[in-house]
Amino acid sequence: MRNKVPEATLGFWAIKILATTVGETGADYLAVHVGLGTAFTGGMMLALLIAALAVQLRMRKYVPWIYWLTVVLVSVVGTQITDALTDKLGVSLYFSTIVFALALAVVFALWYRSERTLSIHTIYTTRRELFYWAAVLFTFALGTAAGDLATEALGLGFMIGVVAFGALIALVSAIYCVGGNPVLTFWLAYILTRPLGASFGDLLSQSRTYGGLGLGTINTSLLFLTAIVVMVVFATAAEQRAVRATTSSEH
């Protein structure tokens, strides 16, 4: 197989943040406004995720539409896991943040012990890809818990949450640019984009009473889903051009 994960370009990070925002607002819309409830929404999204992941695992290379569909569904499921623990079971956000951080550390430890690398540039075996998606799921769950902890439990609010997590991502990017470890900085940024996207989604969708801009979850979800589709179409076209260029050079 060829590498199954796209390069971490600006486009990659833009779609990742958009997918994260959809995970936050989409889960809220289905569970609360449609009235499906957290448990039913979580079960339905988990079933869709398993189906999408099965298709993704069968691919022999990076295919934009199924890769990003899987990311969006992982975002929703990761959000649902944290929301179910917090809202239904009464688990403290402090506790869930610690638990998900430890779970992610265990995934990384097992991944590195098995493959001797955590790089996204070498996801060309099924085992590595399974480790990758397990890590992605826990980054979403951890990011949701940490984001809710900062914006709600600690009372920072959505606007300050966007600024704070944006500043942390900028710091990680600066460390990478001056020679920081590319694998470590990638995964730190990947974790931080979750609370950034969630804070941004809440800022746009929540009512002004709660410190948001009042766009609503359905409008915010549709806006960002449309943006994701447009960017994935461009990514697909770019991938096809690259394949054609490679094929012509070989001949």
TrEMBL record:
<feature type="transmembrane region" description="Helical">
    <location>
        <begin position="93"/>
        <end position="110"/>
    </location>
</feature>
<keyword id="KW-0812">Transmembrane</keyword>
<feature type="transmembrane region" description="Helical">
    <location>
        <begin position="153"/>
        <end position="176"/>
    </location>
</feature>
<dbReference type="InterPro" id="IPR007136">
    <property type="entry name" value="DUF347"/>
</dbReference>
<feature type="transmembrane region" description="Helical">
    <location>
        <begin position="213"/>
        <end position="235"/>
    </location>
</feature>
<keyword id="KW-0472">Membrane</keyword>
<dbReference type="Pfam" id="PF03988">
    <property type="entry name" value="DUF347"/>
</dbReference>
<feature type="transmembrane region" description="Helical">
    <location>
        <begin position="62"/>
        <end position="81"/>
    </location>
</feature>
<feature type="transmembrane region" description="Helical">
    <location>
        <begin position="183"/>
        <end position="201"/>
    </location>
</feature>
<feature type="transmembrane region" description="Helical">
    <location>
        <begin position="29"/>
        <end position="55"/>
    </location>
</feature>
<keyword id="KW-1133">Transmembrane helix</keyword>
<protein>
    <recommendedName>
        <fullName>Membrane-anchored protein</fullName>
    </recommendedName>
</protein>
<feature type="transmembrane region" description="Helical">
    <location>
        <begin position="130"/>
        <end position="147"/>
    </location>
</feature>
